[in-house]
Design goal:
By secondary structure, the chain is mainly alpha-helical. The protein has one domain: 2-Layer Sandwich (Protein Binding, DinI Protein, Chain A). It is built from 8 helices and 2 strands. It has a two-stranded parallel sheet. Helix 6 crosses helix 8. The longest helix is centred in the middle third of the chain and has 55 residues. The radius of gyration is 26 Å and the shape is rod-shaped. The two termini are 35 Å apart.
């Protein structure tokens, strides 16, 4: 929802610039940034998945053990059902069903928790990116920066006469790295 508002605001601003005329628009310095490219190249993004895996290691191990137990009991049921009496087969079937239900509950819980933590970490990275964008825009004298996930297709960029000088993605990544050096 917030990104739609930002996108609409950017479109309104660009539309306003176009309406004002070429002379006024040429006075505006507009740049764009490939958010996906910057985020994928950040050192912080490469460690997020590893950190989350480490944070949830015990739950993942527990899930894997449950899955192995379920597989073992399924194989045992298929392999030995002819040599087992009816009560044993029924008991093992009930155990398999209970394990399947327990596994599904654990899977949902684990996926949800990992997704939530991933989003928390991504939000921290977005704060770093936004800070760097602001610093690069101020240093470069940009009036407007537009986020574009695929600059080659235009994304949110309506017109860009000189992509080499307008794409600030590399500058943003460099600023993030400089900020990281300062904070360490």
């Amino acid at each position: 929802m917030l990104s739609k508002i930002k996108k609409n605001t950017a479109m309104i601003l660009l539309g306003s610039l176009m309406l004002v005329g070429n002379a006024a628009a040429k006075e505006q310095k507009i740049g764009f940034m490939d958010l996906q490219s910057v985020a994928s190249q950040m050192k912080q993004m490469t460690t997020i998945q590893a950190n989350i895996q480490a944070e949830f290691k015990d739950q993942i191990d527990e899930f894997d053990k449950l899955q192995k137990d379920l597989t073992y009991n399924n194989e045992k049921l298929q392999r030995d059902h002819e040599t087992m009496n009816v009560a044993q087969v029924d008991e093992l079937r009930k155990a398999v069903i209970a394990q399947q239900e327990q596994l599904e509950v654990k899977r949902r819980s684990l996926v949800q928790a990992m997704k939530y933590r991933s989003q928390e970490e991504r939000n921290k990275v977005l704060v770093l990116i936004n800070q760097a964008v602001k610093e690069v825009a101020e240093k470069g004298g940009y009036d407007l920066i537009i986020k574009s996930d695929d600059p080659s297709k235009g994304g949110d960029v309506f017109y860009n006469a000189n992509k080499e000088t307008s794409d600030i993605s590399a500058k943003v990544l460099e600023q993030i790295q400089n900020n990281a050096k300062i904070s360490n």
